[in-house]
Amino acid sequence: MSQTRGPFFVGKDIEWETTADGVRRQILAVGTDLMLVRVDFEAGAVGAVHHHPHRQATYVAAGTFDVTMGLESQRVTVGDSFTAPADVPHGVKAIEAGTLIDCFTPVREDFLARNR
């Protein structure tokens, strides 16, 4: 990440990281215990099922996604949101190109380490 922690982050100055085929991520803001991340998906791209100790809330800013959360799956679209409790396996598939805005607590230090 090109900028140290906030309070202000200028979107055009923030680097993007490719995380998978058709998926890229931008760390929008980082505080002491909270992080905001934008993830863009091309149609058909997959955010593989994974889990982490962080709590996550996600807002669908654009597109349509099939979301798997534990044993449940649901289609979400613009204006919808979902949460991922700590250590619950979750993943997404972009039905159409779109953008997810993820909020994490605590901060995903693993994301920051990749951008140093």
Q: Tell me the strand percentage band.
A: over 45%
Mean pLDDT: 92
Topology as a string of helices (H) and strands (E): EEEEEEEEH
Report the major sheet.
Answer: 8 strands, antiparallel
CATH topology: Jelly Rolls
Produce the secondary structure layout.
Layout: E1 17-20, E2 23-30, E3 35-41, E4 46-50, E5 55-69, E6 72-77, E7 81-84, E8 90-105, H1 109-114
Antiparallel strand pairs: 1-2, 2-3, 3-8, 4-8, 5-6, 5-7, 5-8
Question: Please, could you describe this protein's structure?
Answer:
This protein has 116 residues and is mainly beta. It has a single domain, classed as Sandwich (Jelly Rolls). Helices cover 5% and strands 56% of the residues. It has one helix and eight strands. Strands 1, 2, 3, 4, 5, 6, 7 and 8 form an eight-stranded antiparallel sheet that branches. The model has no long low-confidence stretch (mean pLDDT 92).
